[in-house]
Every structure is written in C-alpha cells, then in structure tokens.
Amino acid sequence: MGGGASPLICTEGLTRYFGTRPAVVELTMEVRAGEVLGLLGPNGAGKTTTVRMLAGLLAPSAGEAVVAGHSVTKEPSKVRPNVGVVPENPGFYKRLTARQNLRFFAELYGVRDPHRIAETLALVGLAPRADEPVATLSKGLRQRLALARALIHDPPVLLLDEPTSGLDPEAAKEVRELLAELSLAHRAILLCTHNLSEAERLCHRIAVLKTKLIALGSPSELKERLFGRRVVVTLANPRPELPSALGFPFVRGASLDGNKLFVAVEEPERHNPLLVRRLVELGAEILYVTEEERTLEEVYLELVEGGNAA
Amino acid sequence: MRLKVLVLKEWAELFRIKMVLFGCTFMPLFMGGFAGYMVWQGRGLPPEGQAALFNAALLYFLILPVMIPVTLAVYSVVGEKEQGTLEPLLATPLSDLELFLGKSIVAVVPAVLLTWGVFGLFLIFASQVIPGGVPEGVLSLPWLLSIFALSPLMALFAALVAMIISSRSTDSRAAYQFAGLAVVPSLVPLIVYSARLTAVDLKFVGIEGGILLVLNAVLLFLGVKIFQREEILIRWK
Q: Best interface-test mutation with B: which of A101, A108, A159 has the largest number of B CBs within 10 A?
C-alpha cells in the first residue's frame, strides 16, 4: 500500500440515525488507494449502514463522506458508478444465467467493452459455468459472481459486506485469494467481516465499530496499543524470584507462569539481548526466546467486550 | 439506454416464470374467448340484438388492460424483494425515475399488445361467425379510441397503482392482494358504458382519457416520490 496514496474513501463525523436509534455515530476514517480496511464489529454495530452510506444508498443524518472524490450527501448519483458493492445478501436473478446477470449490470453501469464480461467471469473463475442459470450455482460460485458484479465496471472503490459469510472453508479460501489479488490493484477496499483471521490476513488496517469507531490501526498497531509487546522466555529451571530480579527500566512488567517467563518490553529487537544476558547472569537456563503473538481476536474481544478504546 | 436495459431484462426474466406467463395469457384468452362466444351465440338475432351483444362483448377488452399489468407489475417489484436483488440494483447508476418507469413499462406494453392482439382475433372471429360480418356502426370511432387510446392509459394506471402498493408493502402476499385494488377504479368507465350501452360518444371518451391522463401523471409523480431507494432499503426487509 502506498502511504502517500490519495484517500478514495474519506468520512468525517459520519452519522446515521434510524428514528431515534443511532446506527453509526461520528465515524471519521479514510481508506487510501491500494489499501484494504477491515471494518469489524458485532452484529448491529453499523457496518452495513456504513457500507450503504458510502455506496450512496442511504443518506447520512449528519457528517460527510467523500467517495472517489464525490460527496455522498450532495452527489450520490456520481458516487454509485465509482463503487462496486458486494452486499450482505448478494441476490441475483436466479432464472437468468451468470453471464446474463453480469451483462445486465454491465449495461446499467454503461460498460461498452464487449470483452469485459468474459474477462470478469474469467477473473473470478466462473467462465466454465457462465451460461448456467444462477439458481444452479453453489453459494460459493454466487459469491464469486457477486464479486464479478462489483468489479464489472472496474470501480476504484470496493465495498464488501461479509463476502465470505456462509461459505464452506474451501470456497471462503478461494474468495479470500481473489480479494488478495484485487487489493494489489490500486483500489480502496472496505471489507466488513466477522472473520478475524480473514481480516488479519487481508487488511492493512482495521477499524472496530460499535456504533462509534472504537479503534483504528494496523493489526500490529492495535495489538501493541492494547497489549504492549511481551517476550516469552522458556526456561529449563524456572525460579520464582526471576521476574523481580530483572531490574531494567525498559521492563514494564514480568511474570512467571510454569516454565515461561513473560516480560513486557518496549522494543524486543533492542532489549532482548540485554534481557537474555541478564537472565543468564541470574543463572537461568534458557530454552527459547520468542515474542508473544496476540491474535486479532484477542484485540477485538478486548475492544468490544472490555470497552477499551485503542 | 438504462431504461431499455432494465425493461429487456425484466421481460427476459418474467417470461421464464410459468405462473406469470400463465397469469398473463389466461385472462386475454378467457375474455377474448368469452366475447367470441357471446357474439357466436347471438348470430341468429336481428341486427339490433347482435349490435347490443357486440357492444357488451367489447367491454371485456376494457377490462383486460387493467388486469394483465397487475400481475406483471407486482411481480417485477416483489420479485426483486424475494430474490434480494434490490440492493445491487439500487447501487447502480439507475435513477429512481428510471427504475419506476422501467418497471411500469414492463407491465404496460405486454398488457396493451395482448389486449390489441386478442381484440384483433375477436374481430376476425366475429366477422366470420356473424352473418353479414361485424354489425354496422358498432365499431364506432369512440369505441376504437377506447380500445386503442384508453386501454394504454388504463394499463398504465393499473401498473402504477400496483407498483405503488407493492413498493409500500412489506409482505409479498399482501402486495398481491392489495394490488388487485388497482382494477377497481378502472371498472368505473365500464359501469358507465354498461349503463349507456351503445351511447359511447367521443365526449365521454375524451373526458375519461383526460381524467386518466391526469391520474397517471399524479400517480407517476407520487410513485417516484415514494419509490426512493432509501425508503425501499429500509422498509423492504
């Protein structure tokens, strides 16, 4: 992802109420060209409402969003041709074939290139089944077709609302691989998902939404911000006095659990050699030194259930 | 262009649905057949009696254009809801007006063509079975205007009413039931015609046409106002 790339999605205080119920409150974020931003949050957190506002389908109650250079409040009709959407339930005209469905949407988007439909079907691996009615396609193939529909007009912005939801692991993997390829092009992709390992693999940055934005950053930034960095030293001869005997200012905390010594440090790259030397001086017999791997799931649960904002 | 794309897709889809096809073709065939049977039954009557029967038979061709579009209009809206195709459709550059108008055209054109087609078949049949052909003076200018000018306006009226009801309804079965109401106002001219029998005149056709034109303009305006993507997305669950 190019750090200096221009933002293709930019929201400022984006808010939407349904009656008196807030769905999204004061959402401020941006997604740059070539970036995949994962939008995580529990059910009812406002993810779908955000996607709909960014697609020019729902008007914000307050705030503003600019998508591909067009305001969603002032010019939603200019936003729509620049956005490819995979909705939560990607419906199709089931009696028509995959190719007929795609041709219909291509024509609505004003796609003139006669080869574009075949190219897009090939891109999502649907070419061999293109002339079969959608009703006969599996859920995984329909999801691929939904991606093809979102890509048919080659939009700079993709809004994907749980594109792997309900798919079997193999189909989900295929869709993820496709998404990874798409992110290489200079598109801004907003990916709503409940699948945290998918988000960790595909997304450059993660936004955690619970009506309000409660965290935004790269997966590693969020982990670090929330949990700090911890070194795990596996010992052959664990001794209870070790955690308190380290005596370094960069050590923010240490604890012993079985034969594992957990040490919170600021920069393991710089501090680990000093730490290892000190432990050896203290008579510790070291088997392994690793950095503790926090998962995005832990970060997410801490944020959503723990009420922490990162 | 987008309007044409939408209309062609709708027809490609609708005409693959057996129930919709059956619903659209049964009524014209039934009513056209019944009208033919009436004039065939009266073939031995004196010319005045034949003329009266022929007039009564013609009324069926004013019912057809309001019955056919209801099925098509309701399905074209409800079908989007049922298949979950509405959100991707609304995400395209298609405007609310294009969407509403396109779906109305989808319902109106087959209704009008079927009405005219069955009317043509009826005339051919009548000219064959009635000794001396179609009674003189029955196919007057007001009657022909009713069939060829009023029926499209009636079909549009029925389609617009069905579309508005379908777009406001959150349940497809309720949409089908309530959309049947689209036929009721269109029966008013039939009642008037029935009461006056052969006294169908240009003035009456003109007034009726004018009222339908105004009603259709108002319904189109209201329909587009109501048929907004945001409303539809929120209401149609």
A: A108
